[in-house]
Specification:
29% of the residues lie in helices and 48% in strands. It has 3 helices and 6 strands. A hairpin with a 6-residue loop joins β1 and β2. α1 runs antiparallel to α2. The mean pLDDT is 92.
Length: 114
């Protein structure tokens, strides 16, 4: 496995850990300045809007478990299971695109509640 692939895999894992730990500072350092985020609810929103909309004011997750992670060049595909503090859980997939050593975009594909 190449060093770049290992590094990008670790960046992806670190991003989810930062989200779980509510560490916007750590996540922000992993994203490009022109980072964009898309989901069924958000269409190509900018970095500042992403942090405003997608990072809750209060903790809501007790766990984020990466079930599948593949890196191919500048793209990573992740399937994860999220466990919320209220006892509910869901599974989503995300496509992350890298530019150099930072994440330039994320596209989320919602799964189902478990």
């Amino acid at each position: 496995m190449s060093d770049m692939r290992i590094s990008r895999e670790q960046t992806v894992r670190d991003l989810y850990a930062a989200y779980l730990d509510d560490r916007k500072d750590i996540a922000g350092a992993m994203l490009t300045e022109d980072f964009t985020f898309s989901s069924p609810r958000d269409d190509h929103i900018a970095r500042a809007v992403y942090f405003e909309r997608c990072w809750s004011k209060e903790p809501i997750f007790r766990g984020l478990h990466i079930e599948f992670l593949a890196i191919d060049g500048d793209e990573a595909i992740v399937r994860y299971r999220a466990e919320k503090l209220d006892g509910t859980s869901f599974r989503d997939m995300e496509s992350l695109r890298f530019r150099d050593d930072k994440i330039a975009s994320v596209e989320v594909y919602f799964g189902r509640n478990l």
